[in-house]
Amino acid sequence: MERSRDIWPETDDEETIRAWVQRNWRTTLMNSLDIRLVEIAPGRAVGELPVRDGVRAPIGAVHAGAIVALADTIATGAALAAINRPGQPERFPLAIDLSVQLVGNVDDGRLRAESEVVHRGRTLVVVHTRVSSVETGRLVALVTSTHFVPA
Questions:
Q1: Residue 28 forms part of a structural domain
Q2: Which residues pair with 56 in a beta bridge?
Q3: What does the buried/exposed string (b/e) look like for 63-89 if buried means 16 or more CB atoms within 10 Å of the residue's CB?
Q4: Which domain holds residue 47?
Q5: Is the distance from CB of 115 to CB of 129 less than 8 angstroms?
Q6: Helix (H, G, I), strand (E, B) or coil at 124
Q7: 5, 64 in Cβ contact below 8 A?
Q8: What is the rounded distance in angstroms from the CA atom of residue 19 to the CA atom of residue 46?
Q9: How many CA atoms lie within 13 A of 135 on its CB side?
Q10: Tell me, what's the pLDDT at 104?
């Protein structure tokens, strides 16, 4: 399926951008996993994933793939907000490299991913993401991702 190039919102208002991203990602893995974008600003994004059946591994803890999907999704949101300008055609940053350190896990509650752009170049954006338990603050993963920005 080819994705049409949408026009980025006409404003820098965080709530407008958050709603636009959430709406445009409604047919994606983000929606299937019930990932919710909590906050988005240029170069920063925060999102949450509820721990439930469908994201757990057979042992009951969150599947590593779900943790990585959360981190990648929110990192992409941070990169989106860093590279797009109001009223311009959307440029979508494509992840080309992910480095993941899984350091913990949970079996209930919610996971929170906090992503921060650490490098914004003309064609590459690098994002650091920290995934932790909302309830306990326990660190679950550290992820560094590199995103290619097509012209």
A1: yes
A2: 62
A3: eeebbbbbbbbbbbbbbbbbbbeeeee
A4: 14-148
A5: yes
A6: strand
A7: no
A8: 13
A9: 9
A10: 97
Domain with 23 in it: what CATH number? 3.10.129.10
**CA 82/CA 67 separation, integer angstroms:** 23
| 57 pLDDT higher than 90 | yes
C-alpha closest to that of 17 among 28, 8, 25: 8
Is 96 contained in some domain?
A: yes
Task: Using the structure block, give the residue that is written with the tokens 């909302």.
Answer: 134
Task: Name the H helices within the chain.
Answer: 14-24, 29-32, 64-83
Q: Looking at residue 5, what is its pLDDT? A: 57
The number of CA neighbours under 13 Å toward the Cβ of 36 is 7
Q: By the 8 A CB rule, do 78 and 127 touch?
A: yes
Specify if 129 maps to a domain. yes
- Does 1 map to a domain? no
Number of domains in the chain: 1
Q: Which of 118, 29, 121 is nearest to 129 (CA)?
A: 118
Claim: this prediction has a pTM higher than 0.85: yes
Structure-token match 């439930």, residue found: 52
Over residues 63-101, the pLDDT tens digits come to 999 999 999 999 999 999 999 999 889 999 999 999 999
